[in-house]
Amino acid sequence: MAQLWGGRFTKETDRLVYQFNASISFDQKFFEQDIRGSKAHVAMLAKQGILNGEEKRQITEGLDGILQDVREGKLAITEEYEDIHSFVEANLTARIGDAGKKLHTGRSRNDQVALDMKLYVRDEIDAVDEELYRLLLALQKIMEENLHTYMPGFTHLQKAQPVTLAHHVGAYFEMFVRDRSRLLDIRKRMNTCPLGAGALAGTTYPLDREYTAELLDFDAPTRNSMDSVSDRDYVIELLCALSTIMMHLSRFCEEIILWNSNEYRFVEIDDAYSTGSSIMPQKKNPDIAELVRGKTGRVYGALTSLLTTMKGIPLAYNKDMQEDKELTFDAIDTVKGCLALFTGMISTMKFNRENMEESAKNGFTNATDAADYLVNHGVPFRDAHGIVGQLVLKCLERGISLDELPLEEYREISPVFQEDIYEAIRLDTCVEKRMTLGAPGSQVMERIVRENREYLKSEKNACILS
Ligand code: ARG
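Above: inputs. Below: predicted complex with arginine.
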């Protein structure tokens, strides 16, 4: 049991207490960020004359050596240390001797852990953003290929009006673009450096906080030392953004599960992304989509958990805050995994275009257009609605669609109908006439797809994959 704070104590910590208190089993996840932060801190201490050049060199080389040895598997991070900060400091001193003991000058684990968590979250925001970008590329491809793939649009899970697959997928494109901009907002707002806040009240050493902030790519140092060590707002914001991503993925998964069912048969999930049943040989189950939907609850759980943890904590640092880590790491890994698998699943999924179109043709998705036809011939909309309602009833009784109902029967209910009603309610007419911005008509959708393409190619985005 290697502890940094033994001086004041006369007894060994109880083993269970030690284990309960320790965080190394999970905070080793930000080992690299811890080293990075320490190197910046040391560079600043030397610049300010608090350490001499030789001490700076020894500590920096020592930290680099630890980093390399851990990366190469020569040095294991073991549970004999309380946390990752103790692991690094103990190994540094073992390596370089007394100079190692000066690393923690003007620093507390409170500002150190606040820094590590920020550095980690910032890196992971970029990683999640990259997964979102890859997903958008996959969605864009589906959109480009399906501007004329007709399918029913639903409300209340009842067929409503016809749309296209490009339009339907385009709705998710918008959601995931918003998710990216939410991450970017969080990244901007959180980008201040807590290092130098000390335990809670700053330090008496002449630290240059602007300098460490700059070395670590922050926009500025934080402005209040008590807030610096006890702020976890950005983690909560991140968990909220991650929950929203999962909510979007989960809705999409729910649709794919329906579309893949024997009843819909709109899509077929690739064999590589499906699983079988141990008893029923005919089964091919959409387990990946179901798991993504299921894991959504887990990410929501992390958000609720941290909000609850934080709500009663007096200023400044309290140990409760150690609870932010496991659930945040788990939520981040869950979302990255789900995004990657989901992207793979929809990129390999087969769309049964005929079934989609056939489904759009049945179920009176053109009833609104029949009413619009009457309105265009001077009938008030409310009357037109009633007339078409009667026509639908007639069709239902006979098991036919509006396209199959003879003209005489149309005219029995309203003499306004002419031969051109059939053209007005044809599936492609219904879709292509919807040309208001944001509607499924291919002319406006082409514009959206073009704008998407420019967005995906924009400078910031293109560099993600290069
Ligand atoms: N493992 C701790 C955490 O995650 C590091 C900070 C410890 N600070 C302290 N005063 N005990 O929050």
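The beta strands are 150-155, 158-164, 192-193, 220-221, 267-268, 350-351.
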